[in-house]
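look at this stuff:

>
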Amino acid sequence: MAAAPGAYEASLPAVPEWLNKGDNAWQLTAATFVGIQSMPGLVVLYGSIVKKKWAVNSAFMALYAYASSLLVWVLVAFRMAFGERLLPFWGKAGVALSQGYLIRRASLPATAHDDKPRTEPFYPEATLVLFQFEFAAITLVLLAGSVLGRMNIKAWMAFTPLWLLFSYTVGAFSLWGGGFLYHWGVIDYSGGYVIHLSSGVAGFTAAYWVGPRLKSDRERFSPNNILLMIVGGGLLWMGWAGFNGGAPYTANIAASMAVLNTNVSAATSLLTWTCLDVIFFSKPSVIGAVQGMMTGLVCITPGAGLVQTWAAVIMGVFAGSVPWFTMMILHKKSALLMKVDDTLAVFHTHAVAGLLGGVLTGLLATPELLEIESPVPGLRGAFYGGGIGQLGKQLAGAAFVVAWNVVVTSLILLAIGLVIPLRMPDDQLMIGDDAAHGEEAYALWGDGEKFDATRHDTARVGGGMERDGSVEQRLAGMGARGVTIQL
């Protein structure tokens, strides 16, 4: 009989006794799924859901956030979020780059609780660093959705590492890494608060400080490619299997429940949102369907591996109706919501849906699944005998996340604004991608082709500025100034 391949020999140095190959393989797979949600999922979705002139800029903001987050993460941020305790809400900073640190067994040193030992997954630290990075990165990418179409790209480049360091790491350590909310028993299975509530609140805050888009863009901001938008949304949905399925750090029962519940909630929410669109507006909106899908994914996240599947259906119904109401009805009646230009309605699809999911988890989480996942003994949803106490913890945890993000996001942006303008000037906002990057998403005519007023509704004048008004008005104005139209 032939000898087993080296990879299957348990005695090799690459296969220490503590390594579980199944857990390691699943965790690396889950990390890849989450990464696909950002790259290319949200990059494609952002580049296609915005007006044509903002396609490149919107996609690049997501791309840059993903790349910049990785370096900050391994240099200092990972251990601030999952290292040894420094403060009740923060871990000690440190690098995650050396071989000695990354090939040892993964450990979350601050998670030990009473007689329960600290969490130590059965794979290397490098796997945990990668998996948690994908969560950190997608949080910033989601936040970007609030400020698309006007934020100065240089200000965004300065903002991403600072927000990751001073906001994300605090939420992650407090709820996941062994901070005070973790030990108190606030439940956030996979990021309803750490990722979605924080990105929605921080995005809304950032939108306030950056300022609004041009009036013409706010009034009409049609997607440049709805089919690609659906592709991006589909990658987001499928990638959520890793998002929620990887949260237990092992391929266990909770992971299976989480993946099933995630899909059930997303489908239910999409259908609920679509039905409401038909009832109130007579037509099913494709953009609305994608938003409903997203709110279903967000809402189930804080309890995906902790609730029964019938509860996932209930959460999906709430996810497709409550954010729909806040976006379609309440938003138009609130002076504050109308004033702040949240480009992709991240506040509604993530902050509202994330908070809703956290509250519903406090009601519907089962004691059996919580026993698998939580270090705090005796936790259970209010419907299973947990009483009002668990619901109070969920609300208190949300209040901390909201308050921290409003304050820290504001301070970061005010500091950046002293050096770099947060918003592009109006003349550049008229142009979009060409002003921000010197590049455009679509070449709509051949090299050297003459401008044909019957085919194109925009003209490029004096270095690429796109002007409003009819084609005839622009052509007449150019002729009066002796400008030759050559594209």
